[in-house]
Amino acid sequence: MSLLLFAVIRFEVGTPDLSKATVQNSPAEREANVVLRGAAQSWVADELRHRFDRFNRQPPAQKVQQILDGALRYGSYVAFVLLPLFAALQFLSYAGSRRGRGDRPRLYAEHLVYASHLHAFGFMMAAVLLAVPVAPIRWLLLAWTPYYILRAKRVVYGGRWPGRVARSLLVLVVYLLAVVAATIGLVIVAILWR
Fold first, then answer.
1. Which domain covers residue 131, as residue numbers?
2. Rounded to whole angstroms, how far apart are CA atoms 105 and 113?
3. Could you tell me if 102 and 126 are in contact, meaning their C-beta atoms sit under 8 angstroms apart?
4. Is residue 96 domain-resident?
5. Residue 24: how many CB atoms within 10 A of its CB?
6. CA distance 90 to 167
7. Strands, DSSP E only, in 20-66?
8. CA of 22: how far to CAs of 17, 41, 63, 180, in Å?
9. Is residue 19 one of the residues assigned to a domain?
């Protein structure tokens, strides 16, 4: 599903048109460049400076295109790597909790199956939302998604609503922080790998 999502992004989203954007020569524009400071002289630091300089010399449209190409190329790998983290967060959020539900997943592999299912659903929904041009259908799908996720959580983990919601929010916050860190890393890789 992640590969399908990134294929849909490639075909449906495309590259933003920067041809009508105004360019101003200001200090803020120069600050948008990537600079490596404070690194000791070494082969690695010199190579990084060379790659950042090559990126900084490009026009803004090429910079955006390079970042988007890299994000689309490596994004599915990042999603694949984040999946076990989500499962681990689910596992930890239910560690030691056996009250009220004896058939609740106990093993990490069981949480990994749940995480795989939820991620596949999320990727599928994102692909459909990008591909369907009808706004009311998009809003309906967006409204249905949280219900589906909460229902899946109830079926798999059981328990009371307050506990499920609290655990879900905790997992969501930590996972979103990991997604932000992975996205920043993805942009850096997109800049460096060209």
1. 2-14+37-192
2. 10
3. no
4. yes
5. 6
6. 8
7. none
8. 12, 37, 16, 29
9. no
Number of domains the chain contains: 1
**pLDDT tens digits for range 114-129:** 999 999 898 889 888 8
Question: DSSP secondary-structure letter at 99?
Answer: T
| Per-residue confidence (pLDDT) for residue 148, from 0 to 100 | 92
* Residue 24 falls inside a structural domain: no
Which pTM does this prediction carry? 0.71
Which two tokens mark 169? Answer: 């929010």
The CA-based angle 112-114-118, given to 5 degrees, is 115
The pLDDT tens digits for 33-87 are: 766 666 667 777 777 778 888 888 888 888 888 887 777 777 778 888 899 999 9
Residue 119 lies in a domain: yes
